[in-house]
Description:
Blueprint: H1 5-40, E1 45-52, H2 55-64, H3 71-77, E2 82-88, H4 91-102, E3 108-114, E4 127-137, E5 140-152, H5 153-169, H6 175-218
Parallel strand pairs: 2-5
Antiparallel strand pairs: 1-2, 3-4, 4-5
Helix pairs in contact: 5-6
The site of ligand 0O2 has 9 residues, from helix 5.
Amino acid sequence: MMMDKQMVMEWAKMLMSYKFALDEINTKLTILNEELQFVHNYNPIEHVKTRIKSPESIVEKLQRKGVDVSKENAARHIRDIAGVRVICSFTTDVYRVYDMIQRQSDVKVIEVKDYIKDPKPNGYQSLHMIIEIPIFLSEGIEHVSVEIQLRTIAMDFWASLEHKIYYQFHDDMPESIREQLKETADMIGVLDRRMLGLKEEVQRFTEQVEAKQTSSLAM
Length: 219
Ligand code: 0O2
């Protein structure tokens, strides 16, 4: 599709709004992480990645959906133009961060897909939320949608490898590779549960030691 100068300007302006929405989400996540670090000496977020979909992949996705290519249709039909990936250590952190985001009064949750509770048939696990947030521009408020993917480090490891393999084969993935990906995804689930169990055991141990120290000080 050829874009004239006016269209290029309009698309650039639209993408700028999505960039501002990502900036807002990034700030929200940084505040939560820093506050939790300060108050509880614990940060649930390992790291955050953001990306804006390129105009080429927006056009490709619109065409795949059989929708006319326009700025308005992009905003209406593609809800992951702005994407945020939040990587946490444990599944409990994933739900904790999810809960803290959805409770913020300027965040409107449009849709939630829990692929941790119900993984995709290929084994993919992540918690997806589509939200809408207001951004305050010179001429007024714009409500912008953002896709937030929350997952553990282990889930992220699996998903990045699977993504690369998928792009190599698309729908012609050899059955043995498909099976191994599913098996490794199941192993990721087991690993995440073991790591969480370990973390909880360490926590109980630390609490017991602290309780002993407090009672011996009181004597
Ligand atoms: P990219 O290149 O990461 O942006 P929709 O976006 O609503 O039209 P869908 O499939 O209903 O499509 O949405 P869903 O299930 O919420 O998935 C959206 C995004 O999640 C994908 O974006 C991927 O980033 C990720 N995802 C979903 N399924 C898989 C999977 O099986 N493996 C991996 N590695 N990632 C997955 P895009 O636009 O497809 O890709």
